[in-house]
Amino acid sequence: MFDRPDIAKALQTYVLDTAPVMALLLDAEDRVVDANDHARRVLGAGAVGRPLAEQIVDFHHTLDVPAIIRQGDTVHRLTLNTAAGRPETFGFRFFSVSVGTLALASLDFQEQVELREQVLALNRELNNLTRQLYQANAELRELNQLKNQFLGMAAHDLRKPIGLIMTYGGFVLDEAGAQLSGEHREYLQTCLRAARGMKQLIDDFLDLAVIESGQLRLNLASATAREIIAGAEPVARLVAAKKGITLLVEEVDDTRRLRVDASKLQQVLLNLVGNAVEHSVSGQRVWLTSRWEGQNLVFAVRDEGPGITPEDQSRLFTAFGRTGQRKTAGERSTGLGLAIARLVVEAHGGRIWVESRPGHGATFLFSLPTKEEEKP
Q: What is the mean pLDDT of the chain?
């Protein structure tokens, strides 16, 4: 039936004009001299006039294209560069004709099926991994909440006995200090210093637990940069004076008012000043400054200490982060102060960072992208 002239003509028209089959006519040198419409769409207009071997993707450089073409109507899986810019695999059959070689090719459906199965398998694996990740994240959130609850409860319960030790120890030192020997007074003062350090540790734990549990609330109010520094300056000077450090304050001189939580920012400044003092020796200086950079208010605390290596800088603002630098007077630290400072600054929408190199001190800065308060 298919050898009838009218049917053969219809099949020829369909193959040449409509069917998703590539028809390439090759000359004696295996150069493409003609192509049907589908082949031109798939391979691009530049396919005609080029050797077929140049259009085949040969990843291993082992294809003997002329030998393949001479193997008759055996189906060969060949990958070609397409006009879409991606390689695709086709099933080729070659037929010897009077004017050269006729190459007929269609997409390799087996490869399409394999690719589809691989995509489905990868999609299933991705879904499984997504579910596992979601479950792991949920467990981590729950563990983090339990950790914060534990820290808060433990710190709260420790506050009362530490407070009693500090209170009654202070009473003994004030009222009976004259009756104690110098050695005994030193013992008692050591106990009180340890109690104060423990209280600071407890306060840090409570602050960190509150912030990480998402319960930090900023009490925003109007304040100037000078007012923020003024609230922290008296305590900062006492901290510096105890170690013989000179504190130099250079606040910005303007009247722009901002909506910030001044007490939280003063805590940040005290943490930074305390950190600078801990890494300084008697006779050195610490600077506390502020300035405006566009709409950003920048505070800076600079010291003349030993500086910080790049490796240590990457750990500074993480909870319990420690550096290789030793405190100049052997002060003990939990590594929570800078972590709390970072969380408070970020709660204001700002950022905190350090600029330092070994042997040239360190400057801790934080920037607040707080716009000037609108005037009524």
A: 81
Burial (CB < 10 A; 0-12, 13-18, 19+), residue 22, is buried
Query: By mean pLDDT, which of 74-83, 126-135, 183-192, 326-335 is the weakest?
Result: 326-335
- The backbone region for 13, taken as left when phi is positive above 0, alpha when psi lies in -120 to 50, beta otherwise, is alpha
HSE-CB at 357 with a 13 A cutoff on CA atoms is 0
DSSP for 322-340, please give it: --SPPPTT-----S-HHHH
Q: Which domains does the chain have, with CATH numbers?
A: 5-107 (3.30.450.20), 114-212 (1.10.287), 221-368 (3.30.565.10)
Does the global pTM surpass 0.90? no
CB-based contact 51:101 (threshold 8 Å): no
Please give the backbone phi and psi of residue 79, each rounded to the nearest 5 degrees, phi first.
-100, 125
Phi, psi at 13, each rounded to 5°: -65, -40
pLDDT tens digits, one per residue of 217-254 = 778 888 898 999 988 898 899 889 989 999 999 877 67
> Is 287 in a helix, a strand, or coil?
strand
Cβ contacts of residue 296 below 8 Å, gap of 6+?
A: 350, 367, 368, 369, 370
